[in-house]
């Protein structure tokens, strides 16, 4: 069996869902399990409706839910013949009635807790998976809708819940395996789960990729396919740099490093379950199903470029913690890191000098409580609106001169480097710049590191591209 995950843009409307049905139909011999995201932008819209309700703007909240109701009903009626549509419509209406009740209670309490946020957001994937499942059935695919809340069991850390793997594996095995065995395609929402008590949870924004790999690892899938709106993993974000090229093969380590440092095409945790079971992960374009896509697996052949790809992680803040007497006493770093740890603030890059420690962290994790805890024993200052740029590739191991090339390229773009990290990971050179400098730095780096003298390397890359439709030939090593 295989797992096929379709992101928001791949299920954004009736034509997109129609394409998904065709793609899944073309793989039916592989016994797919399908995991879908909410329709494009729905999670953001649910969140802003919840915030409006909590801020007392009940009518804005209800209006946006009305628009969402219409969008889902329209997609269903465009996709489905009358017999299927008349069966699904009351189910969708009833979900929207529940959603509306939830928003009214948020507006009454004027509070959007993490728990009610999850209750709210879970509707996105529940609705999309019901529509996609009905669309498959209407096209003659044998399938069954599966409620992800019954299978993906998590702790109660609402909005960023961690899966309870043993329980989840047992539930997935019990619920999905019999369907797969009788060649019926399970269709479930990603991103959403529930606690052992059945309270809905979500596993972090962009988490449907992670759901897919959890399902793949639990059921020992032959491969996991992540279908999205770009040709595959690319040498950098194509929306940032139009010259970005498709990477046809990349190692687990390289792809995991890129995902952790801002390559949004994969949720950062996606590869962990796949690595554990050595399951190849493919990134494919739902608008071009015959495209080669990217194969992510344990080992990938080195290429001619100094690095495999460049990622940028925006929304970063540098927190500076000074030594009390203008120098850093022994044990100070450990104490500082313990504070970050207690406040669940993950440190991406750390640099220390005689007089202070600088830590680059995700901006949302810099809470007033974290700052108060640090200030209780040291002077603290923050530099918001920073970004971490990472150049990643197995070719960095032991190769001379790449760091020099990287930093002279960034300097040539007129961009100042505020912090540097090299060596912690042998395959990543990371540095912090102002967020507004990201486009200039990344474009310049891309053109310098992926230069194509006389077209030679472009030709070499084309030569190693698997032929379209050969996706199944990439086995795990
Ligand atoms: P989905 O809705 O399918 O989950 P996402 O929006 O989460 O899709 O991820 C796809 C996006 O990731 C692309 O549109 C692209 O802008 C972005 N992206 C960032 N880095 C990369 C990269 N290295 N390769 C491909 N896409 C990337
Ligand atoms: N719908 C969720 C989000 O937008 C999960 C996902 O798309 O992966 O974050
Ligand atoms: Mg995504």
Layout: helices, strands, pairs:
Blueprint: E1 2-6, H1 14-26, E2 32-36, H2 42-54, H3 58-79, H4 82-109, H5 114-138, E3 143-146, H6 165-181, E4 185-189, E5 192-194, E6 200-202, H7 208-218, E7 223-228, E8 249-251, H8 252-260, H9 271-277, E9 281-285, E10 294-297, E11 309-322, H10 332-342, E12 347-352, E13 356-362, H11 368-375, E14 380-392, H12 402-412, E15 419-422, E16 428-434, H13 438-449, H14 456-464
Parallel strand pairs: 1-2, 1-7, 2-4, 3-4, 7-9, 8-10
Antiparallel strand pairs: 5-6, 9-10, 11-13, 11-14, 12-13, 14-16, 15-16
Bound molecules: adenosine-5'-diphosphate, aspartic acid and magnesium ion.
Residues 7, 206, 209 line the site of magnesium ion.
Helices and strands, in order, run as: EHEHHHHEHEEEHEEHHEEEHEEHEHEEHH
Shape: globular
The number of E-state strands comes to 16
**Beta strand %:** 15-25%
**Sheet bearing the most strands, described?**
8 strands, mixed
Q: Give the spatial strand order of the biggest sheet.
A: 3-4-2-1-7-9-10-8
On the 0 to 100 scale, the average pLDDT is 92
Helix content: 40-55%
Q: Name the structural class.
A: alpha/beta
User: What distance lies between the first and last C-alpha atoms, to the nearest angstrom?
Assistant: 18 Å
| Radius of gyration over all CA atoms, rounded | 23 Å
Q: Can you count the helices?
A: 14
Low-confidence stretches are 454-477
What small molecules does the structure contain? adenosine-5'-diphosphate, aspartic acid, magnesium ion
